[in-house]
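Entry 14. Structure prediction run on the chain below.
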Amino acid sequence: MHALQIRKQSQVASASSSVLDASVSELQARLRARTLTAKELVEAHITRTLEVNPRLNALVADRFDAARWEAVQADAIYDSADHTELPPLLGIPCSIKEFLALQGMPQTGGVLYRKGVVAAHDSTVVSRIRRAGAIPLGVTNVPEGGLWMETHNLIWGRTNNPWDVSRTSGGSSGGEGALVAAGGAPFGIGSDIGGSIRIPAAFCGTVGHKPSAGLIPNTGHFPAAKDSFGYMVIGPLCRRVDDVMPILRVLAGPDDHDPACQKMPLRDPESVNISSLRLFSWPGGGAVKVRPVMREAVDLCAAALRSEGARERVLSGHDLENGFVLWISALQAANPDGYESVVAGDDGIPILRELLLYPFGRSRFVLPTLVTMLSESIVRRLPIGFSSFLRRLDRLREELDAQLGDDGVILHPPYSRPAPRHKLALLTPFDAECTALFNVLGYAVTVVPVGFDEEGLPVSVQVIARRGNDHLTLAAARVIERQFGGWRRAMR
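Output returned:
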């Protein structure tokens, strides 16, 4: 008997199905048919957020009154238009990670020196989402400064996992993962520099997509992306795989401000013939101890894709097991100022003093921040030639690109295990290797839920393709979602 529990549910839309369980495309159809109003839709999600947020602490600042007004405006457009040229996300509520500027909302990054900072204008992606007709409900919680897989800071507090509030929702888009998983928003916008979309999606049981490097501009994000390689990306967390591409089409394309963002084609997942896919399973290993339930999920998904004709291959490459080292080296080379500049601004931090103050509750920082800064400080003092690691990264990218081509996908666990209890991720900091390598490779990655472990926690897989092949990861993820049921609302 498998340790992985599959709880399938119908994905067929019906007029009576709850708006809290419907995909974006289902909601769009009902809005256009006028069997549902934007006002009703927004109000249902506000009500749901008010119900679950006291236990989750996912949404940290709301704009509910403005959202209600915008829903009325959306209904007026629906009622007056012929529905042929409507904005693509008209009337769909959403949530926004607090790192992304949303006019009038806090943008602290979870760091104390920015407490009270409010966005004066929208970031590029928020502007595009709103222009497409989506209605932001507010901003969601983040880790302090972002570079950690536990969403906790001294301004907004800690976010809980909706499947078990004693566990982490992940980070750094942990507020997004928790809110979308619990049905508080049909989709949310997060960001990812080492797994920050994919880990919350996996821990909370939502779909999450890390787009190809350079597909979407990072303008208006804090912390700012200081590299020109597209290591950090912005992307959606949502209920269904089919929700991803319509959102990507709204977000994608240069804005003349972010030098890493380039124009690239977004091909249709519908055009992918699964029988033409070459499939590479990589269940994890090396220094990261991947639990059997995560390996089992990869095996089951590989079998699902093989059943539709995908051809399995063996993945090889130098440095495949050194992903974390390559990731941290690439980030250090791209941003020599490091994490300390994000969480302390220009003031600098006496790290050892703050560590001594922490047990007495007097530090200005949470423990993961202090540990990360101490590690970064040690790494800077080591005689490491980052250029040699960048050459190794380039060689690995060339090797993997050649194997994947335009029809290859990799299946890989998004983490070593399902969501850990609060604070326990500190004991295994290198487990982020499961996701981090694919940022510095620039690859497209979709996380899709597969089932639940014996404790009722979500289990997911990553579907990975080379840069520019987002449509491949989405096509393969659709098969997995169809066979195993996909997203299921938490906290029912």
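Residues 24-320+389-484 form a domain with the Amidase signature (AS) enzymes fold (CATH 3.90.1300.10).
Filed with the rest of this week's runs.
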